[in-house]
Amino acid sequence: MNWQVYIIVCTDNSLYTGITTDIERRFSEHAGAQGAKYFRGRRPGEVVYLEGGHTRSSASKREAAIKKLLRVDKLRLIASNSNELCAADKPARS
After folding, report:
1. Containing structural domain, residue 26
2. What's the number of CA atoms in the CB half-sphere (13 Å) around residue 81?
């Protein structure tokens, strides 16, 4: 299976990091209060970071590493070339 690591920006401007095999399903679960407890006191805004190509194990390790980052470092990650959501918007590098 292809596991993905994702970051969601919430309506309170906080950042939530998680893993899934289906980002659309997982976002719907979070929005419908069936996801993580984190969303009981806040609402998910949008997925702002997506990184695929992981196994379950590597996705879990990457999730843990991202959760340890400072907010400023998470924002840099969101703006980086490793963000698959931005790949189509950025020009190819030679």
Report:
1. 3-79
2. 4
Q: For residue 41, tell me if it sits in a domain.
A: yes
pLDDT tens track, the chain, 94 positions: 799 999 999 999 999 999 999 999 999 998 887 778 888 888 999 999 999 999 999 999 999 999 999 999 999 999 999 899 876 554 443 3
For residue 51, being part of any structural domain is answered with yes
Distance (Å, whole) CA 10 – CA 29: 14
pTM of the model: 0.88
Kindly state the tokens that stand for 9. 């920006």
Q: How far are the Cα atoms of 29, 41, 57, 69, 93 from residue 85, in angstroms, in the given order?
A: 20, 26, 22, 20, 16
The CATH number of the domain holding residue 59 is 3.40.1440.10
